[in-house]
């Protein structure tokens, strides 16, 4: 943050005591300034329009208008403001409602001082990154094309429901994308219970936490020392062996590391957990594509619909999500057409159900390696090709070529008009 610049914060809570306690907690932070306080949701909306804060600390339960409704209105009227919801109810349903409403973070009341200050600064940094495009580093004197050429694509593989096959698809997708020309990195960001080591039969003393902890100073040699090579040539960053190691990582570190890694690889595939943590949201923020995986069952479809609501609330481009249906059973049940009609989003790829997947997982040999001619492997390769195509620039077919334009200028003769191209 530039010297002298401050994070403007609006505090919203119906408790005078809580508002004052938060104010006292923040008043000694040199980079944070309290620009206003409100005791109801309606006051919060009005204050946000007037003060234009960077961050709003929003209580969820208030008279007049609750924090969820106020969040929706502020996100609409003051899109630059980042909302941090504060609530004594810490269950998943409240968290999900807050995220869909447009909140950036969710903290249990009362938050610790370090937790609150960290959340404020993190939310502010995320808001800045959304309006400041990331530019790839290039050699002095290099043009824009040189920078673009070094920037790979980050692809997050996610499902709002566990057990739908995200790790299977992430693993095989990475292998399908990898080649000598398109070097690919596969990252296990299920930091507590990641399974990529099992799926690929890999063992190492290193893990992705080492990369995240050194996000500010990553270099090629260190990245190479931590990544694990698969016999296909694919590089892999495994999850830690102990769940508690995940606690030392912040969303800002993950985001910074991914931005650095995209300059080393053509594709960075990120296998995620189903929990909507701030780390997972930071991965979505920097991803060029989110592969949303669902299966043909009611709970998974319901969760996919909720995720699309979240995507809209976060103002992600509509084409950032690639909707994939896994475990398709043609013997009957819910069809892709049924799901598309229900959710109103196109299913881009369908992966068939195959009992041989379990054998593949237990032996640590991906299906695209030991069964490339199987329908499931061919479907995954087709999905990889569709992903590649989605990153290709769109060519206007009707636009005149440079040669044709030059010829027209030289001859100065108008082309004969033809009706319907005949």
Characterise the protein shown here.
This protein is of the alpha/beta class and 422 residues long. The chain has two domains: 7-131, Rossmann fold; 149-390, P-loop containing nucleotide triphosphate hydrolases (Rossmann fold, 3-Layer(aba) Sandwich), CATH 3.40.50. The chain has helices spanning 16-26, 41-51, 67-77, 92-101, 113-131, 144-149, 166-177, 196-200, 208-213, 220-226, 251-261, 278-286, 298-313, 336-343, 356-363, 367-370, 375-390, 402-411, and strands at residues 7-12, 32-38, 55-59, 82-87, 105-108, 153-158, 184-189, 228-229, 235-237, 267-272, 289-294, 321-328, 349-352. Strand 1 (7-12), helix 1 and strand 2 (32-38) form a beta-alpha-beta unit. It is globular, with a radius of gyration of 24 Å. The relative contact order is 0.10. Residues 130-149 and 399-422 have low confidence and may be disordered.
Question: Alpha-carbon distance between the termini?
Answer: 62 Å
Low-confidence stretches: 130-149, 399-422
Task: Give the domain tally.
Answer: 2
Basic shape: globular
Number of strands: 13
Question: Residue share in helices?
Answer: 40-55%
- Give the CATH class of the largest domain: Alpha Beta
CATH topology of the largest domain: Rossmann fold
Structural class: alpha/beta
Biggest sheet features: 8 strands, mixed
Q: Per CATH, which architecture of the largest domain?
A: 3-Layer(aba) Sandwich
Please tell me the overall pLDDT.
84
List the helices and strands and how they pair.
Blueprint (H helix, E strand, L loop, with lengths): L6 E6 L3 H11 L5 E7 L2 H11 L3 E5 L7 H11 L4 E6 L4 H10 L3 E4 L4 H19 L12 H6 L3 E6 L7 H12 L6 E6 L6 H5 L7 H6 L6 H7 L1 E2 L5 E3 L13 H11 L5 E6 L5 H9 L2 E6 L3 H16 L7 E8 L7 H8 L5 E4 L3 H8 L3 H4 L4 H16 L11 H10 L11
Parallel strand pairs: 1-2, 1-3, 3-4, 4-5, 6-10, 6-11, 7-9, 7-10, 11-12, 12-13
Antiparallel strand pairs: 8-9
Helix pairs in contact: 2-3, 7-17, 11-12
């Amino acid at each position: 943050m530039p010297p002298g610049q401050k994070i403007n914060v609006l505090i919203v809570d119906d408790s005078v005591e809580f508002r004052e306690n938060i104010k006292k907690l923040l008043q000694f932070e040199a980079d944070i300034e309290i620009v206003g306080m409100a005791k109801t949701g309606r006051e919060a909306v009005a204050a946000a329009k007037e003060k234009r804060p960077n961050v709003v600390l929003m209580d969820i339960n208030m008279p007049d208008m609750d924090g969820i409704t106020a969040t929706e209105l502020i996100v609409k009227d003051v899109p630059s403001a980042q909302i941090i919801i504060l609530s004594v109810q810490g269950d998943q349903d409240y968290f999900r409602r807050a995220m869909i409403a447009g909140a950036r973070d969710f903290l249990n009341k009362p938050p610790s001082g370090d937790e609150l200050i960290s959340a404020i600064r993190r939310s502010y940094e995320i808001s800045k990154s959304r309006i400041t495009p990331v530019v790839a580093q290039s050699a002095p004197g290099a043009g824009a094309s040189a920078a673009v050429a070094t920037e790979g694509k980050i692809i997050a593989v996610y499902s709002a429901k566990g057990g739908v096959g995200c790790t299977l698809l992430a693993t095989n997708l990475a292998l399908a994308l990898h080649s000598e020309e398109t070097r690919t990195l596969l990252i296990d960001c299920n930091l507590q219970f990641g399974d990529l080591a099992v799926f690929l039969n890999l063992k190492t003393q290193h893990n992705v936490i080492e990369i995240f902890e050194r996000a500010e100073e990553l270099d090629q040699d260190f990245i190479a020392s931590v990544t694990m090579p698969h016999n296909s040539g694919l590089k892999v960053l495994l999850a830690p062996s102990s769940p508690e190691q995940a606690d030392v990582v912040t969303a800002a570190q993950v985001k910074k590391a991914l931005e650095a890694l995209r300059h080393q690889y053509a594709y960075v595939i990120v296998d995620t957990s189903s929990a909507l943590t701030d780390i997972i949201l930071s991965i979505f923020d920097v991803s060029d594509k989110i592969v949303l995986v669902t299966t043909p069952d009611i709970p998974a479809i319901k969760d996919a619909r909720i995720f699309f609501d979240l995507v809209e609330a976060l103002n992600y481009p509509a084409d950032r999500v690639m909707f994939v249906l896994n475990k398709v059973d043609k013997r009957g049940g819910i069809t892709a057409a049924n799901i598309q009609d229900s959710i109103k989003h196109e299913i881009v790829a369908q992966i068939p159900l195959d009992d041989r997947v379990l054998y593949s997982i237990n032996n640590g040999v991906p299906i695209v390696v030991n069964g490339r001619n199987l329908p499931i492997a061919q479907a995954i390769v087709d999905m990889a090709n569709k992903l590649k195509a989605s990153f290709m620039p769109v060519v206007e077919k009707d636009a005149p070529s440079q040669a044709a334009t030059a010829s027209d200028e030289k001859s100065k003769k108008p082309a004969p008009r033809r009706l319907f191209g005949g």
